[in-house]
């Protein structure tokens, strides 16, 4: 398949690109500064692009099978957390202009429930510094949920803790509830998160809904 990955130079975006290439897909990586990406591959191209501009989104995604958004606020530059809301709006409009239909979004874990009616981001132990980002990600999810059948979106929430690690190819799946292990922990490596995302790209199970993974 021909894939577009927005945010391809980020920690998760790079792993999505690598996993997609390993599976034989053709990938266009999009980032504000694509020169930061060191990977070279015959099936990989890179372009500078603005995920907040619907016209730019339309230009970049036209003719591709699946659009993947791995964008998020740059914490080192204290970027506005609400950029994920603006990105959601621009992606939706841009895909419609381009006649593209399939969108997979790297989302947040904060809006997952840990008990009926209780979200992770509302618990006392949730880091206060992450709450604005979690709230913006939850708002973006609601924007996707308001879309009709002309957009096959999937919102993919990670485990509570996601970090670089091993690619095992193993994970457990949930939907609206945080997935935890027997110790009550919720973790996934970025590598296995990318595996699960590409599994969804190749064999969709969660069209127009959210899902999550953890060990």
UniProtKB/TrEMBL annotation:
Database matches in Pfam families: NAD_binding_10
Domain of life (superkingdom): Bacteria
Molecular function as annotated in GO: oxidoreductase activity, acting on the CH-NH group of donors, NAD or NADP as acceptor
Domain NAD(P)-binding: from-to ranges: 7-200
Name of protein: 3-beta hydroxysteroid dehydrogenase
């Amino acid at each position: 398949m021909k894939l577009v990955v927005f945010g391809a130079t980020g920690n998760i975006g790079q792993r999505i690109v690598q996993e997609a290439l390993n599976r034989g897909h053709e990938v266009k990586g999009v980032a504000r500064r694509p020169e930061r990406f060191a990977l070279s591959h015959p099936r990989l191209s890179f372009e500078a692009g603005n995920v907040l501009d619907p016209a730019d989104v339309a230009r970049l995604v036209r003719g591709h099978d699946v659009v993947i958004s791995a964008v998020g606020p740059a914490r080192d530059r204290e970027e506005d957390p609400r950029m994920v809301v603006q990105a959601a709006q621009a992606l939706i409009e841009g895909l419609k202009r381009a006649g593209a239909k399939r969108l997979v979004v790297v989302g947040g874990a904060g809006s997952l429930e840990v008990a009926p009616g209780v979200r992770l981001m509302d618990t006392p132990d949730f880091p206060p510094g992450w709450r604005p980002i979690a709230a913006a990600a939850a708002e973006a999810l609601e924007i996707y949920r308001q879309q009709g059948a002309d957009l096959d979106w999937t919102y993919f929430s990670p485990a509570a803790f996601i970090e670089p690690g091993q690619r095992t190819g193993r994970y457990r799946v949930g939907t609206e509830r945080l997935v935890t292990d027997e110790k009550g922990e919720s973790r996934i490596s970025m590598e296995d998160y990318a595996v699960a995302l590409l599994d969804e790209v190749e064999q969709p199970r969660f069209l127009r809904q959210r899902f999550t993974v953890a060990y």
